[in-house]
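Figure S7 source data.
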Amino acid sequence: MRCPKCGSRDDKVIDSRQSRDGSSIRRRRQCLKCKYRYTTYEEIERSDLRVIKTNRTHEPFDRRKLAASIAKAFEKRSTSLLTLEDMVDEIVHELETGGREVPSSVIGARVLEKLRGIDEVAYLRYASVYQRFQDVDQFVDAIHTLGRRIKSNALQRELFPPEATKENANVARRSREGAIKNHGRV
Ligand SMILES: [Zn+2]
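Tokens for the predicted zinc ion complex:
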């Protein structure tokens, strides 16, 4: 900030306070040259980014929705909220510099690009839920590509936890038994 009194660009923040609703931050600053104190306000710039969905309808970009979808991919993974927030910041910034309208597929691709470098399990989860692979082969390819780079056992455990697998097996067995029983009655 340029000092309003002497024009120097060197200042320090001596106090930061959030507004009651959290939408702005008020900072007290002091010029390092002339010691003059002044106040600045920092506010969220309202994004006018619009998302073009696959069905061609538009909707306003929703940062919280994006953050929630990424957070879901990181469920039970050891990634800090700070990393998540940084990631969302970066993606939003990149999207905003790209123009006013962005296809949802581009957003998905951006997220995947980031996830790939941070957490491969989260990457696969996001890809399977939000990106929707074109076909099964593509999904298998992605798993194989990752599998070559990380221990496949670890990946297997993450994607198919032992409890879940056992539970699924039980459900499958029960429904098989049910089917046999029903069949016997017919
Ligand atoms: Zn000054």
